[in-house]
DNA sequence: TTGTAAGCGTTATCAA
DNA sequence: TTGATAACGCTTACAA
């Protein structure tokens, strides 16, 4: 572990020049540059990121806030690992390291302190809840001018940097796919209405039905909590009305699969299943039996874009909220071929 | 953003005393402590983690190295998110932040530079491959005395800190479960033999069969790469010998489910399925149809223990390699009740 | 083009 | 029990 001083000595220059060469700043004679690089190479000198951060008052870290996932499994790990990978890939391109933090169940994360303590230069919030305290915490972040971006959650009336997918369109596509095939009694198993996400799905469902000349039957609207278990519970209700219900659209794959399981537990055979469309197109979708049609959400790209916004805030300000397109992936669960 | 200096002034003490109070070091008069805390509170003073790290030459970060997962899906996201959660939970208890890094496909990560640059104080390697370059990189880490821990991979002949699950026992349990139910022709779909993990499973299978008075039939030994696709491919072979093969033990759930899918694609009905046991007990296991029996691996706990070892190296040195117990979870795929 | 030196916000040592 | 002060290793004016 050679010091910068040694490098300077060996190269016969000042320490400042070593820094200049290594940072590629300022005008430097080619000969000097070569000598420094050589010396630094020979001594195996590696500058301390710590000292550099300190001197620049920039940590070089991008904070990523994850919700409290373990054990609960409410949300799919797929969802987060894709986004995290997208964020990681773009962060690396920008020379940023990822500092990941988990939310603690009861308490609200003190986002601003992370900045004040200078642990992070910017942050991406993945598991934002939509409640008073959380909003207040994020608003403070905004007020203090810290760069941040919220994923998968829209805060109405604010103009935070947000990256989300077009769930209105995704849901509309799902519904139209079903109505186009002649399904008329479509149950919609939504997630908690407190998520902007769920609200958008609701909107898309309404739109899709309307375009098909139909209306939402409130009795066909169910609410789960995005867990498989809640899908199983919904199956109890669906099973009872199976003579009329001919299709199920669930707000995520886990619930859709939960419903399938619930029906099966109640002795409903696959041949008698209603059509199914899920949401997220997680890897569980293709593992399901029958393979589950699902609305694909570009999680990886969403992660990349969030980082881009933070790196180019000027441009991002033009449209703080980015909505990525969703796409319907049709599989056996809703294809007429299978169902015929 | 008040400075320490202001706090010192307001409290009528020196800056050094402010630090002492906030760090809880040294003897301090209660009255002074109170005044400092009060002043610091009133001014909203938050010490800079950056400056602190710099002064202490400790980043306060625990590095976590993840393999390159996105898109590939070779490994289950479940696996990593559980471990990461375990690591995160224990890291938080120890006041450490998590710096996560992804491996890049082609290149070997330069672990030592992370330490030399002082980005991290210790590190946990999750996706260690077993090849020459990787081993060399890790050996260097060891040589330079940096604290690190390898998860889920054993390097024979080295005495690195390692945390793994007892895959010999897990596999033995799986096999005994099958033999106990009278299955005689058990196909074992293993992962690449280059992983220590796969080798241990092989050993467990051998042991289990031996205890049942049987021997491994080499023709019943298949090798996949832990992906669902490789399970589907294996199904081609299994389907052909379905008249003799009565059970399948796969080295992970994804492959087990892949085999199920492959068989189904080939028109094999669930009633005619062989018994199945998978491995990892990922959430996919209970979503499978039929629900997949699987060997549970305590990923979360493994993450916690890895951090503990790094925090208490003296004790960890007693037994650098920790093997956590595995457990068989029996579900419909292998239970005689279902199969009868 | 290069050197000198101030400064970054702590911690930690030494005196008092 | 507290204060003064020297590190810590880098960046970055400013001078030369």
TrEMBL record, chains A, B:
<dbReference type="InterPro" id="IPR028082">
    <property type="entry name" value="Peripla_BP_I"/>
</dbReference>
<feature type="domain" description="HTH lacI-type">
    <location>
        <begin position="2"/>
        <end position="56"/>
    </location>
</feature>
<dbReference type="InterPro" id="IPR046335">
    <property type="entry name" value="LacI/GalR-like_sensor"/>
</dbReference>
<protein>
    <submittedName>
        <fullName>LacI family DNA-binding transcriptional regulator</fullName>
    </submittedName>
</protein>
<dbReference type="Pfam" id="PF13377">
    <property type="entry name" value="Peripla_BP_3"/>
</dbReference>
<dbReference type="GO" id="GO:0000976">
    <property type="term" value="F:transcription cis-regulatory region binding"/>
</dbReference>
<keyword id="KW-0804">Transcription</keyword>
<keyword id="KW-0238">DNA-binding</keyword>
<dbReference type="InterPro" id="IPR010982">
    <property type="entry name" value="Lambda_DNA-bd_dom_sf"/>
</dbReference>
<dbReference type="GO" id="GO:0003700">
    <property type="term" value="F:DNA-binding transcription factor activity"/>
</dbReference>
<dbReference type="InterPro" id="IPR000843">
    <property type="entry name" value="HTH_LacI"/>
</dbReference>
<dbReference type="Pfam" id="PF00356">
    <property type="entry name" value="LacI"/>
</dbReference>
<keyword id="KW-0805">Transcription regulation</keyword>
